[in-house]
Amino acid sequence: MRIQLKSAEEIGYMREAGRILAACHREIAKHIKPGVSTLEIDGRVEDFLKKKGATPEQKGYKGFPYATCASVNEVVCHGFPDDRPLREGDVVTIDMVVNKNGWLADSGWTYAVGQVNPAVMKLMKRTHEALFKGIEQARPGAAMGNIGHAIQEVAQREGYGIVMSLVGHGIGRQLHEPPDVPSYGTLGRGLKLKAGMVITIEPVFTLGSSGAVFWGDDGWTISSADGSIGVQYEHTIAITKEGPFVLTD
């Protein structure tokens, strides 16, 4: 499958999906607190998207049964929402893909539940920083490796692990389109970026330095191998002649 460059009009359609997604994240952020379950959050997301005339794209994707991925603490990605109450000091990553009139936007965000350990709060801040360091590199003519290199520098500076098996991706009418967008790389190496590409950038860092993970028995849930906390921040980005444009901000 070749890379599909998007027109300004098509990017506008994705921006509409991205606005709904960003508004949904703002709404659920109000409700994340000790005692609330990720299953409740998932229901709120479904209701919110329905009111906006949008649908949760990953529900039913390869059999995934929920509107969101809800990953708590050492679960770094693709966690199933459940009815266990969140606890003070947890972190939870809510990842969702919004479909609006056939065009998609994807964004995951890690939230603190009440007051979290200072080391975990620093991990969140640095992973968020790494996301935007990567976004700054998403310009026409730049190499894909520049994005990953900028992200990797932050993790290495702090001694965090990078979950290298989880990468960003192209997106449009399909959830996963080429190219892959790793959170590690070498300056000047890799695919040359072009205006019209729309990609996700989504670093996943762990407090443990290895970044190694294992898959759960459900075939979806991915957890840190050393049991350390993992966090993720993700935006959908359009690469334009003027530079990177965040569609899910």
UniProtKB/TrEMBL annotation:
A divalent metal cation 1 binds at residues 95, 106, 234. It is an enzyme of class 3 (hydrolase). Substrate binds at residues 78, 176. GO terms for cellular component: cytosol. GO terms for molecular function: initiator methionyl aminopeptidase activity; metal ion binding; metalloaminopeptidase activity. A divalent metal cation 2 binds at residues 106, 169, 202, 234. Its cofactor is Co(2+); Zn(2+); Mn(2+); Fe(2+). It catalyses: Release of N-terminal amino acids, preferentially methionine, from peptides and arylamides. Gene3D superfamilies: Creatinase/methionine aminopeptidase superfamily (3.90.230.10). Binds 2 divalent metal cations per subunit. Has a high-affinity and a low affinity metal-binding site. The true nature of the physiological cofactor is under debate. The enzyme is active with cobalt, zinc, manganese or divalent iron ions. Most likely, methionine aminopeptidases function as mononuclear Fe(2+)-metalloproteases under physiological conditions, and the catalytically relevant metal-binding site has been assigned to the histidine-containing high-affinity site. InterPro entries: Creatinase/aminopeptidase-like (IPR036005), Pept_M24 (IPR000994), Pept_M24_MAP (IPR001714), Pept_M24A_MAP1 (IPR002467). Its EC number is 3.4.11.18. One of its GO terms (biological process) is proteolysis. Residues 13-241 form the Peptidase M24 domain. Keywords: Aminopeptidase, Hydrolase, Metal-binding, Protease. Removes the N-terminal methionine from nascent proteins. The N-terminal methionine is often cleaved when the second residue in the primary sequence is small and uncharged (Met-Ala-, Cys, Gly, Pro, Ser, Thr, or Val). Requires deformylation of the N(alpha)-formylated initiator methionine before it can be hydrolyzed. Belongs to the peptidase M24A family. Methionine aminopeptidase type 1 subfamily. This is Methionine aminopeptidase.
